Amino acid sequence: MEDNGEKMEVEVINDDEIEESDDENENEDQEVYLPNRKLQDDEELVCDESAYIMLHSASTGAPCLSFDIIKDQLGVRETFPMSLSLVCGTQASASHVNNVIVMKMSNLHRTSKEKEDSDLDSDLSDDEDDIEETEEKKPKMNCALINHVGCVNRIRSTNIDNQSFAASFSETGKVFVFNITEQLNAVNDHEALKLYESTNQSALVKPVFVFRGHRTEGYGIDWSTTEPGVLATGDCNKDIHIWRPAESSWIVNQVPLVGHTASVEDIQFSPNEANVMATCSADKSIRIWDTRAAPHKACMLTADNAHDNDVNVISWNKSEPFIASGCDDGILKVWDLRHFQNKTPIATFKHHTDHITTVEWNPLDSTVLATGGDDDQIAIFDLSIEKDDGDENDPQLKDVPPQLLFIHQGQKEIKELHWHPQLPGVILSTALSGFNVFKTISV
After folding, report:
1. In terms of CB atoms within 10 Å, which end of the chain has fewer, N or C?
2. Within the chain, what is the greatest distance between any pair of CA atoms?
3. Helices marked H in 32-155 — which ranges?
4. How many other CB atoms sit within 10 Å of the CB of residue 7?
5. Share of the chain residues as helix, strand and coil, in percent rounded to the nearest 5
6. Calpha distance 306→443 (Å, rounded)
7. Exposed, middle or buried: residue 61 (CB in 10 Å: 0-12, 13-18, 19+)?
8. Dihedral of alpha carbons 37, 38, 40, 41, sign
9. Whole-model pTM over 0.85
10. Of 355, 388, 383, 359, nearest to 371 (Cα)?
């Protein structure tokens, strides 16, 4: 694909193509990695592929450090091969060559090795058959680009009247809203995508709305799931603006909400209460708002000093009154909104060794959540698991949270993860090193 004279390379890699260690060395001196154990100079971490049902990687020319999953009409499904759609935004070194990218990943096969009993007594297939099967199982990716002014700090999508939209917060301080319905149709149809690319549509598409009211760039942005078209955006200058849909446009309250005293890092609308949202900030607080109230009265509840450092991210549980929060110091906390005024979390976990940059509850399992951060790890927790008395007697396990189910590694500087709401247990994550799509045996 060509854009502004620079080629953007998009590649999806089947995990089968990742180089594996020699068979004769595979079982020598192997141990299970525990998070509190320091690696020796002559030791290295090796991926245990049997721990994954599916593991694929993808790369784009410029890193895409924010993305959102686009729901489709196929419902919840677990069959392979899988397909999914998403929208992401680039952070290229040159500001003028950035894009919003609408992607479709398809032909995502199971990558764990399954052997039928009959296979044990059969001869190995011919090399030609192996090559043919590998080609058939190669993942595929279609992409439709839209030129974007400035790097994309954060991007979120929604559906309004059967049309798909994406809102992007640019490093320039502007917030753009794009109708991505045409791009979504293109990545689902080979001929439509060829026409889209051949007519250079990426340079012709214009945003349907631009908000220039923020005085600086920002990262806080979220669409309401209870009121279609309602949007909230928060910037690095502490200002939060509420958007409400008008005919073919939006009306944005030019008076920002009053409360935070430093950068607004993340915004989450309540999944079931209209006009209610939560925010977190570099001022160390988490706040709950009623967007119907006047801007200076909209903050209803505050947990000041919720963390000891900047609160980077929050996630609102889809079916339970819980909010999870992640901090610069690697601390994860879980808050019960029924007792939020007590300003005391119901659970605190210290696993990450660097900034937590992303956290999200599993939308299909209310006790499971995943976190990721600058320590190059994604951790999956299950809060329903209780401590086993036997763990106290094992010195290697006594400092490991019993709720820690799984650690995923291999990406550099993880920025964002999302559970797919229609593919149970499937996580997509993005980092400086590219995308991962995986499903573990744990969830």
Report:
1. N
2. 74
3. 127-136
4. 8
5. 15, 40, 45
6. 29
7. middle
8. positive
9. yes
10. 359
* DSSP per-residue letters across 163-209: EEEEEEEETTS-EEEEE-HHHHHHHT-HHHHHHHHHTTHHHH---SE
**Does residue 396 sit in helix, strand or coil?**
coil
Residues 100, 180: Cα–Cα separation, whole Å: 10
Q: Residue 254 is encoded by which pair of tokens?
A: 């030019």
CA 142, 82, 137, 45 dihedral sign is positive
Own/partner contacts of 166-171, CB < 8 Å, gap of 24 or more, are 166/68, 166/87, 166/100, 167/221, 167/223, 167/231, 167/233, 168/89, 168/100, 169/217, 169/218, 169/219, 169/220, 169/221, 169/233, 170/217, 171/95, 171/217
How, if at all, do strands 98-108 and 82-90 pair? antiparallel
- Residue 7 has a pLDDT of 38
Close Cβ partners of 116 (under 8 Å, ≥ 6 residues apart): none
Buried b (16+ CB within 10 A) or exposed e, 363-389: bbbebbbbbbbbbbbbbbbbbeeeeee
3-state secondary structure of 249: strand
CA distance 392 to 383: 18
Residues lower than pLDDT 70 in the chain: 1-30, 32-43, 114-133, 388-399
In the three-class reduction of DSSP (H, G, I as helix; E, B as strand; rest coil), residue 120 is classed as: helix
pLDDT digits (tens, 9 = 90+) for 43-72: 677 778 899 999 999 998 899 999 999 999
